């Protein structure tokens, strides 16, 4: 019997989409076709591949009006934010812009006697496993540079956002990528693992939970498959005594609550210098109290439901446990009558400490804990007291101090006076349980290719 995946809409719990999962034998055949088609794709001129990817991006842009409500139904993003096309395009275009330079041969010698150079060659077939929280942007981070570098791509998108994989691959094909070179596949976890364990892919880029990342690493053990693992986070903010408090409260509350807190680099804990703690907290409460929780298809809604009821339940449990242990919730529940099920009101907790799950484990929801600190040393110790290391957001007018504090933080990215943003020119990466690898930037191309050395003696 064919297994199916069901996308339950967080809007009302209805089945929004249903798709047949690909059986293992069909998935193996799809892999074989992709691998057979890849060399011809890699042999096409780089400029052609770049142009095709750009065309696909434009095609996605043309359908954005259909995509925006689809996203609301699939994962709850309010329509007022207009989808993800801006970031999707920015990332793909940046990677297209730098391709020629990033993939150019590194010339060591070109003399009468020798030609010596290092060339970047594609891995072959790249599996992209993408999450639902920013389903277009997270997927394009790898798909665009992988294809541009000459790889074939197989996309296994999240079961919560099955239409996204279909749309991306359809646009790529309409733009000119051969059918077998870019494929969207609906795979169970077991089928995915079986393929990886059999060495079907030369590189796997997985973006998702720590548990998922471990399963992928286990499946790949002994196959020498290259892995990029972009996993969870518990990203801290640190507000120093010289910060612009209005900007800090605005930026950090947006970082904590946007997308109902379902951002890999969302702000989940904030440390504030004692001298500015009270006014900072007051400003945060004022901002968050204005959120409008409700149906994401309503243009007035600023916060939609979380993608699944179980995600909201986890955040509720973390919050209730913290309150039972002495934390104080500052957002009035009466302001959010639609709270319930997948719809989760935002919350700010004070009087928290690191014995509480809400300050240690990823919440991936609209709750943030705020603690007072006395100096940089204490803030650094707090920020580093975490199993994760994705980003850290520092608020100060002193760039030297931010760089100094940044040097001491175990993190993938240091932000000053901003947060929750992926700059495609910088490397998207993490440390500790956030995983390993390098997405976007010139280093993203290095991850999606392998070096090949040429040592040609002419005489
Ligand atoms: P998830 O459950 O790990 O799912 C993410 C993707 O991985 C989905 O496509 C999922 O497929 C697939 N997957 C999970 N376990 C798998 C397995 N054992 N074998 C094959 N595929 C597997 O993560 P999520 O809860 O949906 O997404 C949120 C998490 O992603 C958070 O932890 C967040 O921090 C992280 N994230 C990190 C980044 C980053 O850049 N570091 C960016 C975005 C999100 P199904 O949907 O079919 O289960």
Tell me about this structure.
- The protein is built from 15 helices and 20 strands.
- It is globular and about 75 Å long.
- With 459 residues, it is an alpha/beta fold.
- It has helices spanning 24-43, 46-62, 64-75, 85-102, 135-148, 162-175, 189-197, 210-220, 245-257, 277-289, 309-324, 357-360, 376-384, 399-407, 441-447; strands at residues 4-8, 15-20, 106-110, 114-122, 125-129, 152-156, 182-184, 203-207, 226-230, 235-239, 267-273, 328-329, 347-350, 367-373, 388-389, 391-395, 413-416, 431-432, 435-436, 449-457.
- The protein has a 7-stranded mixed beta sheet, sandwiched between helices.
- Strand 6 (152-156), helix 6 (162-175) and strand 7 (182-184) form a beta-alpha-beta unit.
- Bound molecules: NADP nicotinamide-adenine-dinucleotide phosphate (NAP).
- NADP nicotinamide-adenine-dinucleotide phosphate binds at residues 129-133, 138, 156-160, 189, 192-193, 207-209, 212, 215, 230-233, 264, 362, 364, 390, 430, 434.
- NADP nicotinamide-adenine-dinucleotide phosphate binds next to helix 7 and helix 8.
């Amino acid at each position: 019997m064919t297994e199916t995946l069901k996308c339950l809409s967080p809007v009302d719990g209805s089945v929004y989409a249903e798709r047949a999962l690909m059986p293992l034998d069909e998935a193996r055949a799809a892999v074989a076709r992709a691998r057979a088609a890849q060399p011809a794709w890699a042999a096409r001129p780089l400029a052609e591949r770049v142009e095709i990817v750009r065309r696909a991006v434009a095609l996605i842009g043309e359908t954005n009006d259909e995509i925006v409500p689809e996203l609301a139904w699939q994962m709850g993003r309010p329509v007022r934010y207009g989808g993800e096309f801006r970031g999707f395009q920015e990332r793909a275009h940046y990677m297209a812009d730098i391709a020629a330079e990033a993939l150019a041969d590194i010339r060591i010698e070109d003399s009468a006697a020798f030609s010596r150079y290092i060339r970047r060659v594609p891995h072959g077939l790249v599996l992209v496993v993408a999450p639902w929280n920013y389903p277009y942007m997270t997927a394009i981070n790898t798909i665009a540079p992988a294809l541009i570098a000459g790889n074939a791509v197989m996309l296994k998108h999240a079961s919560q956002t099955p239409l996204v994989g279909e749309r991306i691959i359809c646009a790529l094909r309409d733009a000119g990528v051969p059918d077998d070179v870019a494929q969207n596949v609906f795979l169970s976890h077991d089928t995915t693992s079986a393929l990886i364990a059999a060495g079907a892919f030369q590189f796997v880029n997985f973006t998702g939970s720590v548990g998922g990342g471990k399963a992928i690493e286990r499946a790949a053990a002994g196959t020498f498959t290259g892995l990029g693992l972009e996993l969870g986070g518990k990203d801290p903010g640190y507000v120093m005594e010289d910060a612009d408090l209005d900007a800090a409260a605005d930026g950090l509350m947006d970082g904590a609550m946007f997308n109902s807190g379902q951002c890999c680099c969302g702000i989940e804990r904030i440390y504030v210098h004692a001298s500015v703690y009270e006014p900072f907290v007051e400003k945060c409460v004022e901002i968050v109290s204005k959120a409008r929780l409700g149906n994401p298809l309503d243009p007035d809604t600023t916060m939609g439901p979380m993608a699944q009821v179980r995600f909201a339940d986890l955040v509720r449990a973390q919050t209730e446990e913290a309150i039972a242990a002495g934390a104080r919730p500052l957002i009035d529940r009466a302001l959010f009558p639609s709270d319930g099920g997948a719809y989760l009101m935002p919350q700010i907790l004070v009087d928290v400490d690191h014995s509480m799950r809400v300050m240690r484990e990823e919440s991936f929801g609209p709750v943030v804990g705020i603690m007072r600190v006395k100096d940089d040393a204490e803030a650094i110790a707090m920020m580093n007291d975490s199993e994760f290391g994705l980003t850290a957001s520092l608020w100060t007018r002193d760039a030297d101090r931010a760089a100094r504090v940044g040097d001491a933080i175990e993190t993938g990215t240091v932000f000053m006076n901003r947060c929750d943003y992926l700059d495609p020119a910088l490397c998207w990466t993490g440390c500790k349980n956030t995983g390993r690898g390098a997405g976007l930037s010139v280093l993203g191309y290095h991850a999606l290719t392998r070096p090949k050395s040429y040592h040609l003696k002419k005489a």
